[in-house]
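Internal tracking record. Fields below are filled automatically when a chain is submitted to the structure queue. Please do not edit lines marked as system-generated. If the sequence contains nonstandard residues, flag them in the REMARKS field before resubmitting.
Queue: standard
Priority: normal
Entity type: single polypeptide chain
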Amino acid sequence: MPEANDSTNNSGRNSSQGRVISRWLRILLVAAGAVTFFRLYPKQPMTPVRVAGICLMISGLALWLVAQFQLGDSFSVQPKARHLVTHGIYSRIRNPIYVFSTILLVGAVLFTERFGMLVIVLAVAVMQVLRTRAEAKVLEEKFGDEYREYRRKTWF
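SYSTEM-GENERATED OUTPUT FOLLOWS
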């Protein structure tokens, strides 16, 4: 019997370690993408629009990272309800990762001055809204009134 408990504990520990590794891999991929992005546009003249883009990109990325850490092991690709995260940024915004990734993308459009790319940002934003609806259903099913109260007190 103790062997089963040990394997269960190890399985839980491995799962938790896997989520931590996954979180760090996502962060490293975003950082590598940011470095690559800025290397593609090193000699463009700095216009006010490009400066605004950089400001949005930096703030969007920084807040996205904070939201990733605050979400902890509740992150998943498919909608799941591990924990109801209501602290930090999540105490004001239900879906800060989506909000800040959109800010980052808008900043990238401004920085590159390729305004036609706003169509892609709009498509991503629509997909994120649809995803939030699916996530809300899962969270409401698991957490019920607690989630409804949280939703009432927060934006998006």
